[in-house]
Specification:
By secondary structure, the chain is of the alpha/beta class. The chain has eleven helices and nine strands. About 35% of the residues lie in helices and about 15% in strands. Helix 1 links the parallel strand 2 and strand 3. It is globular and about 50 Å long.
Length: about 270
């Protein structure tokens, strides 16, 4: 007897009732709802959208090991089984860590993807982005068991994460229930695997569908040196630079990003 593997327990938020389906994959320490404003706009303008919490983030299930290949396969299995997807090839959008998941999903499960938008990340291993390490270190050092409020958490994190915007974004992962305060993300696993998260696995093949590659104008996560790798895996790539934005393009220039993304998504209709 052949056993069917269980469908991964991933949490999703839908917007919109009709039109092509757009699926969003967030970055490290994020949640699907980070995309809410953009998804709401698309949902009111002829698209259906799904905001996914990636494995080990938000309300999705935790795992015992970090693997980009495993994460991409989990998302693919969830899409293949989802009644909202119902066999439709989706328009897939991924930022940073979620961009790597989205790229690998297209490479490994090409039939699930109709169009791909990759936001400020490349299919390469990264080195020297110490801000992610600093965020993980500060979050790991926070003793959540002694917290009395979210405001207190913000004060304690201020030295390690001086940027108020990043601190506030990180604290969306801190919740309180009957047992006290805790992180919704699998912080211990993620903090222990920052090298893997910065990396890129050995993977072959290419995906010939249309790809929009969005770079923040002030970000160093996408450089000309990474273009050959992107072209090798995704020969139909078009790169767009959004001025006056860093790594979090969609948050720093939401109107410009939404307009660029919507135009790309509509091109395939």
């Amino acid at each position: 007897m052949t056993l069917t593997p269980p469908v991964p327990d991933l949490y999703s938020i839908p917007f919109g009732r009709t039109g092509p389906l757009v699926v969003f994959c967030h970055g490290l320490f994020g949640q699907g709802r980070n995309w809410a404003q953009i998804a709401k706009h698309l949902g009111l303008n002829g698209f259906r959208t799904l905001l996914l919490d990636m494995p080990d983030h938000g309300r999705s299930a935790w795992t015992d090991d970090f693997s980009y290949l495993g994460m991409a396969d989990m998302v693919a299995a969830w899409l293949a089984a989802s009644p909202e997807v119902a066999g439709e090839a989706v328009r897939l959008v991924g930022h940073s860590m979620g961009g790597k998941v989205a790229m690998l999903l297209a490479l490994r499960h090409p039939g699930l993807v109709a169009r791909l938008c990759v936001v400020d990340i490349a299919p390469v291993a990264y080195h020297g982005h110490d801000n992610i390490t600093e965020i993980a270190r500060a979050a790991s050092a926070l003793n959540v068991h002694t917290l009395t409020s979210r405001h207190e958490a913000a004060i304690r994190l201020a030295d390690g994460i001086p940027d108020k915007v990043i601190r506030s974004w990180l604290l969306t992962n801190l919740v309180r229930d009957a047992s006290g305060w805790h992180w919704t993300m699998n912080l211990k696993l993620l903090a222990a695997n920052l090298d893997r998260i910065a990396g890129w696995p050995q993977v072959e093949g290419r995906w010939d569908g249309p790809v929009l590659w969005v770079k923040g104008g002030d970000s160093d996560f996408v450089t000309p040196a990474y273009a050959p790798a992107m072209q090798r895996y995704f020969p139909a790539t078009r790169r767009i630079v959004v001025k006056n934005s860093g790594h979090w393009v969609q948050a720093e220039q939401p109107q410009v990003f939404t307009a660029v993304l919507e135009r790309f998504l509509r091109a395939g209709r």
